[in-house]
């Protein structure tokens, strides 16, 4: 088995050969984050890619994220770092289900969480992320909103807006399984710590937290905070960056089950294989790409978050 040093050298050579930029989501393995040019949330990464002069984007994350990168960067070849890395939340809605819900909720605008397939985004009015959901919903003229596919994020947004939010019953298993009792226990063990959770967590968990934040919002919040310790309610990969950025602060997970199996499918080996064989190319039919781009562009016109973090080499 190759060691990390050899794999990193091979990746560096392949990057030169392909004229590639490597981007990694905040939930990726530590060693994958370490070889990336940029680390961030899905949208930050896709947008970051539009600003670099690269022929190839190697996206270390899950499929819907690489699809967004391909939609925003049609002149680049986008390679997904592991062909089987999907998002079970995104898979909880298919096009027939969306069409049936749209019929049932006729007159409602469809707001689609970025964690969804290109096909689903193409049939939505506007996209949102976990960072800008409230802003996006409030920007829409219609009072009735069909929010897909994440129930918990939709519910969280509904507590912050006067709009009528119709919830679709999808969820992310990593966040949905967190329990209020676990938060209470973590608080008992670390009474001085601030509790920061992702808005994909259930409402009872969010109710016990000090803040509900997207992954990149969590990174910015912790950096700016005068608190010294934090209980984190999101995928454990975020701890790598939290520790790097804040070496003097302490971080605890709510439970030891905060692992997204698909995010962990990417390894240095899968990156080498993907680049060597130029495999897992993400392709989106042009008519779908244009429709998705419209939904993403509408979101960007309302909310333009800060850029992904450039990894210090
Ligand atoms: P962020 O957009 O907050 O990075 O979250 C992505 C995700 O997959 C959450 O589970
Ligand atoms: Fe999907 Fe949840 Fe994994 Fe995020 S953590 S990629 S929402 S399954």
Describe this structure in words.
Helix content is 42%, strand content 17%. The chain is α/β, with parallel strands linked by helices and 313 residues long. The chain has three domains: 4-85 and 265-282, Rossmann fold (3-Layer(aba) Sandwich); 90-171, NadA-like (Rossmann fold, 3-Layer(aba) Sandwich), CATH 3.40.50.10800; 179-253, NadA-like (Rossmann fold). Strands 4-3-1-2-13 form a five-stranded mixed β-sheet, with helices on both faces. Helix 3 packs parallel to helix 4, helix 4 (63-72) crosses helix 15 (286-302) and helix 12 runs parallel beside helix 13 (238-245). The mean pLDDT is 94. The site of 1,3-dihydroxyacetonephosphate has 11 residues, from loops. 1,3-dihydroxyacetonephosphate is lined by residues 26, 41-42, 115, 129-130, 172, 198, 200, 214-215.
Features:
3 domains, 15 helices, Rossmann fold, 313 residues, five-stranded mixed beta sheet, binds 1,3-dihydroxyacetonephosphate, binds iron/sulfur cluster, four-stranded parallel beta sheet, globular
Q: How many discrete structural domains?
A: 3
Structural class: alpha/beta
| Main sheet attributes: strand count, strand direction, barrel closure | 5 strands, mixed
Q: Assign the CATH architecture of the largest domain.
A: 3-Layer(aba) Sandwich
> Count the strands?
13
Order of helices and strands: HEHEHEHEHEHEHEHEHHEHEHEHEHHE
Global outline: globular
Beta-strand fraction estimate: 15-25%
**Widest sheet: strand order?**
4-3-1-2-13
Which assembly state applies to the chains in this document? single chain
Task: Give Rg in angstroms.
Answer: 19 Å
Bound molecules: 1,3-dihydroxyacetonephosphate, iron/sulfur cluster
Low-confidence stretches: none
Give the integer mean of the pLDDT values: 94
**Briefly, what CATH class of the largest domain?**
Alpha Beta
State the CATH superfamily name of the largest domain: NadA-like
The CATH topology of the largest domain turns out to be Rossmann fold
* Spatial gap, N to C terminus: 26 Å
- Alpha plus pi helix count: 15
Question: Helical amount among residues, as a percent range?
Answer: 40-55%
């Amino acid at each position: 088995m190759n060691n990390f040093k050899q794999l990193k050298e091979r990746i560096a050579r392949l990057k030169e050969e392909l004229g590639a930029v490597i981007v990694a989501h905040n939930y990726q393995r530590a060693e994958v984050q370490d070889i990336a040019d940029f680390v961030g949330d899905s949208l930050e990464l896709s947008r970051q890619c539009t600003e670099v002069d690269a022929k190839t984007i190697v996206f270390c994350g899950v499929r819907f994220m690489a699809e967004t990168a391909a939609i925003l960067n049609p002149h680049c070849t986008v390679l997904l770092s592991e062909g089987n890395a999907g998002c079970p939340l995104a898979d909880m809605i298919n096009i027939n289900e969306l069409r049936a819900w749209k019929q049932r909720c006729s007159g409602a605008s469809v707001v689609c969480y970025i964690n969804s397939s290109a096909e689903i985004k193409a049939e939505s009015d506007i996209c949102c992320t976990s960072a800008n959901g409230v802003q996006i919903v409030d920007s829409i003229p219609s009072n009735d909103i069909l929010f897909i596919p994440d129930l918990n994020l939709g519910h969280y947004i509904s507590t912050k807006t006067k709009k009528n939010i119709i919830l679709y019953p999808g969820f992310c298993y990593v966040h949905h399984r967190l329990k209020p009792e676990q938060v209470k226990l973590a608080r008992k063990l670390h009474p001085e710590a601030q509790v920061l959770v992702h808005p994909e967590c259930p409402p009872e968990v969010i109710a016990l937290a000090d803040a509900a934040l997207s992954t990149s919002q969590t990174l910015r919040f912790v950096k700016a905070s005068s608190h010294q310790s934090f209980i984190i309610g999101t995928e454990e990969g975020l701890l790598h960056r939290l520790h790097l950025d804040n070496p003097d602060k302490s971080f605890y997970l709510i439970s030891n089950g905060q692992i997204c199996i698909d995010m962990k499918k990417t390894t240095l080996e899968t990156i080498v294989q993907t680049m060597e064989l130029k495999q897992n190319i993400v392709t989106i039919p042009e008519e779908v790409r244009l429709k998705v781009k419209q939904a993403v562009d509408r979101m960007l016109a309302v909310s333009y978050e800060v850029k992904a973090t450039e990894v210090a080499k």
